[in-house]
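Attaching the record inline, Q. Sequence:
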Amino acid sequence: MIISASRRTDIPAFYSEWLCNRLKEGYALVRNPMNIHQVSRISLSPSVVDGIVFWTKNPIPMMKRLHELEKYTYYVQFTLTAYDRDVEPNIPSKNNVLIPAFWALSKAIGKERVIWRYDPVFFNDRYTMAYHCRYFRVLAAKLAGYTEKCTISFLDLYQNTKRNMKPLHIQRETLAMWYELLQRFSEIAKEYGLFLDTCAEKMESGDPAVPHARCIDKERLERIGKCRLTLEKDPNQRAECGCAASIDIGAYSTCGHGCLYCYANESQNTVRRNLAAHDPKSPLLFGELGEGDVIRERAAASCKENQLTIFDL
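Structure, as predicted:
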């Protein structure tokens, strides 16, 4: 069983204490986002959790607690873009805070366990093709040696992202723009020894050197954990997504970064309300159990097969 922590919110940045409390107690309660009264009790025991994939823009609050993850196989998807505060209003300084945090995290856990994400990509009068290529190179130069690869994707326009990004006057990319960006990013990545892939993009890149990503990556978890895993592709993700099946323990509308492109936040008012309802000692990420809530144990079993031999590594 793989835990995703989380596509829905930034657990390392805002909920690291809650997570470590959940790991100690061995379970978390997660509401079904499509039916809030349906609550799953998810085991977090190391005996059934074969891996954890973290998603974050700021791992610093979790870094002092990395020793509490020693029983688990895990890696970190670290999103680091070139956007300013007009797009990512609550993100700390990239140059002074987050890039040094990337270095420190890589040194602490190994570069194979820190994946750089430069996404989502969008264009407007400020964030042009030239801008992205210039600062992708700057970041690649700084992060080379601290990660093995970078994953990129274009912006998906959901209703809330359309509303939130209206002041930015974004320009819809064309296929030609996508291919140009891929080609130029691929050349930069190669120059700095980085593997480049794309996250759930519908069009084929036209370049076999830029494949589709597997953000929940069975092979990476096998390599880190040194054991084979019997994992299927996640049926709940888009057809273009290469991720293995996982269970997400996050909740929507709970991320305090305030990024305008975020699909996971309904509104900032909802986020503030949910953040205020967070209790790090609660089994729920926010709020309390109430009348009408039904808790069901989520079936959990290890997917490990057998220990890898030296010939498999």
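Residues 88 and 156 are 16 Å apart (CA to CA). Residues 2-157+172-250+279-307 form one domain.

More tomorrow.
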